[in-house]
Amino acid sequence: MFRILLALIIVVPALEIWLLISIGQYIGPWLTILLIILTGILGAWLAKYQGLEALRNAQQKMSYGQMPGDVIIDGICILVGGVLLLTPGFISDSIGFLLLIPATRNIVKPFIIRGIRNRMDKGQFTIINRR
């Protein structure tokens, strides 16, 4: 796991820099910088909008006595997506938008839930239920 994480820490920024330079050469540096700023602003707005909607959904589910499990996964995706969109780079922006847009987030959520369930089955997560 550590080796994979280390590879991601080295490979992803290198790919981001390469892509930024390539796009900068193609469309120009000022347009590239403007594009990065615009995706950051759009991402912050979208994260705020989606985050408030997830919070309302969680409050509504809890008011009906239901566990907001899906909404919590949505909230985690929104948080990670927002952070990725604030990070300069086109790869991180693409993944960030993937996590912020509800239609694509619903495609990603089953994989996240499966990963959490696998870790729970292996005893790597502890769930404390206070009833």
User: SS-based structural class?
Assistant: mainly alpha
Helix content: over 70%
Distance between the termini: 35 Å
Question: What fraction strand?
Answer: under 5%
Rg is: 18 Å
Number of helices: 5
**Biggest sheet architecture:** none
Order of helix and strand elements from N to C terminus: HHHHH
Mean pLDDT, to the nearest integer, reads 87
Count of beta strands? 0
Q: What shape does the CA trace take?
A: flat
Low-confidence stretches: none
Topology (SSEs and partners):
Layout: H1 2-27, H2 29-63, H3 69-86, H4 90-100, H5 102-121
Helix pairs in contact: 1-2, 2-3, 2-4, 3-4, 3-5
Care to describe what's here?
By secondary structure, the protein is an all-alpha fold. It is built from five helices and no strands. The chain has helices at residues 2-27, 29-63, 69-86, 90-100, 102-121. The radius of gyration is 18 Å and the shape is flat.
Summed up:
With 131 residues, this protein is mostly helical. The chain has helices spanning 2-27, 29-63, 69-86, 90-100, 102-121.
